[in-house]
Amino acid sequence: MQQCTLYVSIQDRESVTDAIRKAFSEKTVEVSTDDRAVTVSSKKWFSKSTITFNTLREDLDPEAFDQMKRGMYGYFSQIETPHVRVQQKLLMQITALNVAVGIVSSDGIDKETFQKILEIARSVHGIVFLPTGEMLDKEGKLILDTAGESELEDFILTVSVDLIDGHIHPTPSGEARKQRSMQLLREQGIPVIDHLPVIVGDEDAVIRTKDEIVQRAIALCLIAVYSGGIAENGNVEEEREFIEGIIEQYGAEGFFTEKERAFLYNDAPDRTDTIQMVWMYECYWVLLWALGYVETLDFPSDICDVQSAIDCLRLAENYDAFYQNATVRSKTEILDQADLIYRYDWACVDARINNRPVAGGLNDEVVLERHRALNWLVRYMDADWDDVQMDT
């Protein structure tokens, strides 16, 4: 292998050069005057070997970088894989990249050199793309290849703080909410970190409209009922016929996202996709709370009351009744829960990274889906449902 590429989402872009210097401290390291190229060299008998690191930065080359990201996103999005969750997170990671480092070795990248490249990747939390089409994490484990294979059960996103939170203007309400949340987590025995940023404050937040929340809640309920039926009896045709009648009853045909419609009309849905759609009950439960149908969002240790969730919609019998009986909670209430779940999710991710049990009895799957729904409610990064990110 002569070359590979390191991709990074990082705030301090100069730290990539620092990591190269550190990894190759025993060799000669030269940086170009424009800081876009780093050459590592070592002399041998009558020859000189070099490793070059050529950097493409989003802030300096926005058009070229955007084209590169679009190409990579398209490449990995079309791969058929049973590791759907890993694939989705890799695609999210790709959208957040802001530095690409092309690495070329004159003598080829041997095992020792590759370990140094991984050392750099670990230092800057990068991912490494090989000419064979494999994307590796910072430990050298396979995230995804062209055959849809992966060595990971989950993939942890690493996103530059300025990309995640640059659009958030810190406010007194946001800071006060953060402090209240952290105090509650401490009381519950949940780890916290002071430098996890604030979320959007009351002054700037725009919550989804009642129409949006009602329609999304109905779609999530129906997709969860449908996928649950398939998971239980495996009869796609029978379950589709059943759910189509309910879709008509609530006038919900236009409420589904592109991914949801693709799932609904897939004659042989993937098992992993089916199970993921069953988890939409947890997202639906959050929206029921936001609409006043659920009194409180309890500590996220257990799955929601599925039957009660279904009954909220079933007993309404039609869209108008479900809509009229709903009262959207205040912006403050919704932001309070959004901030809490943000910090709960960080604790879950931290436990997973460090290979230890999640503290306090948190259910990391419940936390993740609540985070998805609450981020959608507060218009986090103004993303549509299919593209909602749960950054920590």
UniProtKB/TrEMBL annotation:
This is DUF4272 domain-containing protein. Pfam families: DUF4272 (PF14094). It comes from Brevibacillus borstelensis AK1. InterPro entries: DUF4272 (IPR025368).
